[in-house]
Write a structure and sequence with these properties.
The chain has about 375 residues and is of the alpha/beta class. The chain has three domains: about 90 residues, Rossmann fold, CATH 3.40.50.10800; about 110 residues, Rossmann fold; about 80 residues, Rossmann fold (3-Layer(aba) Sandwich), CATH 3.40.50. A four-stranded parallel beta sheet has the order 4-3-5-6, sandwiched between helices. Helix 1 runs parallel beside helix 14. The structure holds 1,3-dihydroxyacetonephosphate (13P) and iron/sulfur cluster (SF4). The site of iron/sulfur cluster has 13 residues, from helix 5. The site of 1,3-dihydroxyacetonephosphate (13P) has 10 residues, from loops.
Length: about 375
């Protein structure tokens, strides 16, 4: 039986005129944890089905540790949304099982329309995606024709199809910096905190869609300061979807993979982590001598009921992975007419990040509009 949890959150605002977005609340089905014997049996079944179906698991850092470990053990990947996209595109398997949220499955399908992309639960979505409906977004773009449209990966295929560039939190700074240097003014959507962080860091001229992540938006600066006092030696690691006051307290600001790297590189023994607590599994596995403490979402001003864990990421289960592999249910479909245009900004991001990683110049990948 599924438990249904109502997750209320601040209404994303359309920054054109302050109108409230129509999404009233998000919801999630969180299934009960199977016992040890059932878990072991489900994992065995999944290992067998992956081979039989020529399939590979692509899991995000925020999903249940079982889905992270099993992905790695079976030749798949656990990663951030950027590397999930790259891995799914490049892997030879005919079927991808994407454990994460809907935009990750859609991105995989856009990049590999010939592959079958299965998701454990098609209702697993994201407040950023829900808070950026494509028609309203297109009107916002129409109102700013002089701006280059940069959208976060956490968006629908329709929104991507209107974008010039796609970014994830691990490459947004580099891409916006390069766009600014080439003279671009930016229209940014949908996460206002990440967008404002990028603006502060790069000085780019940006206008924002007013979306937020229901998980990161709830980290509390005041309570974080108190926690820091209790752990004076601890370093604070923050995902930039968090509010600016929380980011201001960070020793390192980064995407999921950036946070992992910072934890490995920094000398400290204790870390306070302001991102989804699904990350703690990988952080603890890779850093056995270090202590990781969740940043506070509770406090006098708290409203979040998801307690630093994304309710939609939590919908991914072993049972559903086994079920979709067996039946072929929950295949992601993207309108074929949309794919070529939606693919453009994704391809640009993947080419840019591949060049950056290879130490190649990226200037030629960004059209020059004149002086910045
Ligand atoms: P990454 O792009 O770092 O994987 O983050 C995705 C996300 O949904 C963060 O909340
Ligand atoms: Fe979306 Fe936030 Fe969940 Fe990430 S953690 S998928 S941004 S709601």
């Amino acid at each position: 039986m599924n438990t249904v949890i109502d997750v209320e959150y601040e209404q994303p605002m359309d920054s054109r005129d302050g109108a409230v977005c129509s999404t009233r609340h998000a919801w999630a089905k969180v299934q009960p944890e199977p016992g040890p014997a059932e878990r072991a049996a489900l994992k065995d079944r999944i290992r067998h089905l992956l081979k039989a179906r020529n399939a590979v698991m692509v899991s995000h850092y925020y999903v249940h540790p079982d889905l992270q470990d099993l992905a790695e053990e079976t030749g798949g990947i656990v990663s951030d949304s950027l590397e999930m996209a790259r891995f799914g595109r490049d892997h030879a398997a005919q079927t991808l099982v994407v454990s994460g949220v809907r935009f990750m499955g859609e991105t995989a399908k856009i990049l590999s329309p010939e592959k079958t992309v299965l998701m454990p639960d098609l209702d697993a979505t994201c407040s950023l995606d829900l808070g950026c409906p494509s028609l309203e977004f297109q009107a916002f773009c129409d109102a700013h024709p002089d701006r280059t449209v940069v959208v976060y990966a956490n968006t629908s295929a329709e929104v991507k199809a209107r974008a010039d560039w796609l970014v994830t939190s691990s490459c947004a700074l580099d891409i916006v910096r390069a766009l600014k240097a080439a003279g671009h003014k930016i229209l940014w959507a949908p996460d206002r905190h990440l967008g404002d962080y990028i603006r502060r860091e790069t000085g780019a001229d940006m206008v924002f869609w007013n979306g937020a992540c229901i998980v990161h938006d709830e980290f509390k600066a005041l309570e974080l300061e108190l926690l820091k006092k209790e752990h004076p030696g601890a370093k604070v690691l923050v995902h930039p979807e968090s509010p600016a006051e929380v980011v201001a307290l960070a020793d390192a600001v980064g995407s999921t993979s950036g946070i992992l790297k910072a934890a490995q590189d920094m000398e400290a023994r204790e870390f306070i982590v302001a991102t989804d607590n699904g990350m703690l599994h990988k952080l603890r596995t890779l850093n056995p001598g270090k202590v990781f403490i969740e940043a506070p979402t509770a406090g006098n001003s708290a409203t979040c009921k998801s307690c630093a864990h994304c309710p939609w990421m939590a919908m991914n289960t072993l049972a559903d992975v086994a079920r979709v592999l067996e039946s072929g249910a929950n295949a992601i479909e993207v309108d074929p007419a949309l794919i070529p245009r939606a693919r453009q900004p994704i391809d640009r991001m993947l080419a840019f990040t591949a060049a950056l990683r290879g130490g190649q110049p990226v200037g030629a990948l960004v059209p020059h509009l004149g002086a910045a």
